[in-house]
Amino acid sequence: MAAEADCQWMRRALHLAARSRGRTWPNPGVGCVIVDAQGVLLGQGRHRRCGAEHAEIAALADCRARGGDPRGATAYVTLAPCTSSGRTGPCSTALITAGLGRVVAAIPDPVQRPPGDDFAAAGIVYECGLLAAEATELHAGFLSRVSQGRPRLTAKWAMSIDGFLATSSGDSGWISCPEALAFSRRHRRHFDAIVISGGTARADDPRLLASVGARHGPWRVVVSASARLPAQARLLAGGDGPPVVVIHDHRARPAALAGLDQAGVRLHPLADAHDPAQVVKALAAIGFNEVLVEGGGHLHHALLAADLYDRIECYIGPLTMAGGRPVATGPGVATVADATRWLPDRTPRRLGATLHCVYRRAR
Ligand code: AOF
Ligand code: ZN
């Protein structure tokens, strides 16, 4: 049984790490806390963006800035310290040089050589596995991309009680209430990228921003084989929001591609942009760890049918349509036995008159 104090400090490191969600891709948003033998916090830090110092280095710097001495202290890290030099130096070496007495990691880093031998040689006690389930959830996108070559994929849709995304004529405004709209917009900032289909881009003309006028935030990705986006699309307007990527294929006309290129769009060609596996691979190749797919029905159908979603965030608005455009447009399974099973992730939350339900794929 892990000591309660150890759990508390690791929880603090996890909270710090959670603040980096959506900001560090392709890197994981790691958190680190340094505590002395008396149980006094000496310093804390987190990885804030790709290319910036790692969590351990930030925590050591914080410790020194507060006039603390990390010698003999314990470092709690949400992911095992790195042992190689990438954009920054190995954190294992920095911790050894700083003279720490003990390092506690929540989970191993699958792309790094484990630091245990280096720590042992330096006389540092090293433990890995504290609050592993929580850290695995927090770093799930990074772990999925580096271990399986795909980001963690979350589907998001707002539907009527009777299961429609839009009316038969395509009207989808105000299915949920203002509280739910505000929540779901802010919630976008926890993701590295927001993905929609070309059809949704043309029909709804969304900006896909995490807040009004946001310069930073998730990249905006449109999957459109033909790369057809109206020149006046709000996604392209202004040019000061987060980058826009269009994933397309040979069906795209050169003139359409040239127009997008001129508008500053990053073009990502595929052999077949209708193949969901290729799209997901492309998202991983760009470096996204956590991706939110906001529709529409054809894209949801393709990804559901290929069992490529890991999570679903479903908003149920307080209305019925008695028909309309379904969440997934396409042939479904033949029998209930063939249906895909999902685990409710938490108690549904009420946002005004809207229910927010989260499901996790039972893999
Ligand atoms: C850590 N602490 O805070 C993070 C780690 O290119 P670099 O130098 O930023 O290294 C990126 C790799 O470092 C990344 O792939 C992952 O394995 C690890 N991330 N490691 O010790 C941190 N963010
Ligand atoms: Zn590191």
Task: Break the fold down into its secondary structure elements and pairings.
Elements: H1 4-18, E1 31-35, E2 41-46, H2 55-65, E3 74-77, H3 91-97, E4 102-105, H4 116-121, E5 125-128, H5 132-138, H6 140-148, E6 152-159, E7 164-166, H7 178-187, E8 193-197, H8 198-204, E9 219-223, E10 244-248, H9 254-262, E11 266-269, H10 276-286, E12 290-293, H11 297-305, E13 311-316, E14 325-326, E15 342-344, E16 349-351, E17 354-361
Parallel strand pairs: 3-4, 4-5, 6-12, 6-13, 8-9, 8-12, 9-10, 10-11
Antiparallel strand pairs: 1-2, 1-3, 7-14, 13-17, 15-17, 16-17
Bound molecules: ligand AOF and zinc ion (ZN).
Bound molecules: ligand AOF, zinc ion
Q: What about the largest sheet? A: 10 strands, mixed
What is the CATH homologous superfamily assignment of the largest domain? Dihydrofolate Reductase, subunit A
- The rough form would be described as elongated
- The CATH topology label of the largest domain is Dihydrofolate Reductase, subunit A
Taken as a percent bin, the fraction of beta residues is 15-25%
Radius of gyration: 23 Å
Q: Which CATH-level-2 architecture of the largest domain?
A: 3-Layer(aba) Sandwich
